Amino acid sequence: MVALKRLDPAFGQGNTEFWKEIMMLSFYKHVNIVSLLGYCDDHGEKIIVYEYASKKILEAYLASNDLNWVQRLKICIGAARGLAYLHNPAENHLRIVHRDIKSSNILLDDNWSAKISDFGLSKFAPANNQFTFLVTNHAGTPGYIDPMYYETGLLTKESDVYSFGVVLFEVLCGRLCYGNQNLQPLVGQVRDYYLENKISELVYSNMKDAMDITSLKLFADIAYRCLCREHKERPLMIETVKALESALEIQVSFL
């Protein structure tokens, strides 16, 4: 069983995105990054073959009782580890800035393990600099885009961190960051509730009773830091991984 992605020029997809994804997935391999199995470039057909993620996308489970708090923490940890690897790869590879981190680009396999996918918008950057700045037209999905990147065109690995912070709060609150006209936009809402020490009121309803308050605080603290306006105030992804791991350890001991 495999997953196929077929290039459709009618949607603005071209050779650049096709070959970029193949090249990146050929060289960057991690348990939390979707695996490339093969590709077709023949008679005008461009198709990429991936490992099959049977549980599909994280977005589908944000408001689902299928995932408890421990499972959600494990998924977030896996996605964070994958992103940390892209930002600091081994073997002297260039750093990768994904540019489109969102819950629909995080796949889930049979064991609910997270796999980062869709590298068509990604950019290479030097891996040996603490801060990497690339000047580029902004790209990504509204609601997840780093506002500083959107305003200035300066892309950094911290732009991915911002997007991941949005995903963390989606997982916590059980809703997408956009699309519901009856609700305040998620980022503005969680910022307000966090500063008023009321973030527990936004937690997805099926998790509240079984959630350790310290685990929640650790999770909310790191997610909030990811959303800091200034790049330098956002955590490294390795810091985010450690904070999420601590939140999981505390939650498991609570149970």
Instruction: Please report the distance between the alpha carbons of the first and last residues.
Output: 36 Å
* Total E-strand runs: 10
Mean pLDDT: 91
Strand order in space, largest sheet: 1-3-2
Beta content: 5-15%
Q: Give the overall shape.
A: globular
| Top-tier CATH class | Mainly Alpha
Write down the CATH topology: Transferase(Phosphotransferase), domain 1
- Largest sheet features: 3 strands, antiparallel
CATH architecture: Orthogonal Bundle
What order do the helices and strands follow? EHEEEHEEEEEHEHHHH
SS-based structural class? alpha+beta
Count of distinct structural domains:
1
Keywords:
255 residues; alpha+beta; Transferase(Phosphotransferase), domain 1; three-stranded antiparallel sheet; 7 helices; 10 strands; 15% strand
Summarize the structure.
The protein is an alpha+beta fold.
Word description of this protein:
The protein is an alpha+beta fold. It has a single domain (55-254), classed as Transferase(Phosphotransferase), domain 1 (Orthogonal Bundle), CATH 1.10.510. Helices cover 38% and strands 15% of the residues. The chain contains seven helices and ten strands. It has helices at 15-27, 69-87, 147-152, 157-173, 186-195, 213-226, 237-254, and strands spanning 2-6, 36-42, 45-51, 56-57, 95-97, 106-108, 114-116, 123-125, 134-135, 154-155. It has a three-stranded antiparallel sheet, with helices on one face. A three-stranded antiparallel sheet has the order 4-6-7. Helix 2 (69-87) runs antiparallel to helix 4 (157-173). The protein is globular.
